[in-house]
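Support request, priority: normal
Reporter: lab tech (M.K.)
Component: structure prediction queue

Hi team, I submitted a job for Ubiquinone biosynthesis O-methyltransferase from Novosphingobium kunmingense yesterday, and the status page still shows it as pending. I've pasted the exact input below so you can check whether something in the sequence is tripping the parser. The sequence length should be 248 residues. Please let me know if I need to resubmit or if it's stuck on your end.
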Amino acid sequence: MANASFTSTAGATIRPEEAAHFGKLAADWWDPKGSSAMLHRLNPVRLAFLREAIDQHWPGDSRALRPLEGRRALDVGCGAGLLCEPLSRLGAAVTGVDAAAENIAAARAHAEGAGLPIDYRHGELDSLPPGQFDLVTSMEVIEHVADKAAFVSALKARLAPGGLMVLSTPNRTTRSRLLLVEGAERLGMVPRGTHHWNDFVTPDELRDLLCAQDLAMGSPRGIAWSAMKGLHLSGDMALNYIVAVTAA
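Reply from support: The job had stalled in the queue. We restarted it manually and it finished. Here are the results:
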């Protein structure tokens, strides 16, 4: 259930072959029945968590349609903009960054068609100004990053004082190997080569990475699947989880 590709000059991070892999999917990204169908099912679950985290971090009217009005948001590894566009509709001035030029081209075209003023950047996170984003998101990306410590450091550097970060990633468990890698990829639910199980990050490992940057991780929520509910927020973190992060 990968989101996109990303690079950072802070260290050796995303592998070039992974950026190429996701770039090949760009033309199909917005097709809910195409190769990114799983992301289309996952996105509402991530957005539900995001909205709850936003309302808790910046208390206000939970019924407000644009709770991010006047705030700047950055989505790292944005792909073709599946998360950037809802963030824009929530009122944020959104920047999306991705390593694959094909993804950025698809994202720009789709946002233009939707009339959304999103600033898409192809390239490296380190090229963006530090400390200017109230909200930093990176969904299904850290598992594709070789130097995870450098990646987390680069994310923190972009976060404004008092800001909020939200991350999601697959957990490294026996069940995730069976279902996300061996199952979903073999059945064609996820493009082959998307996942590398050994690079998955456990909640404890992510907490340690964040602590090393003086960042505090909230209680993780699982993203689980069942025949009755489909993908949904859950206490079961065996497959995938999502967390809110703030300065310690």
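The longest helix spans residues 37-57. Residues 7-12 have pLDDT under 50 and may be disordered. Let us know if anything else looks off. Ticket resolved.
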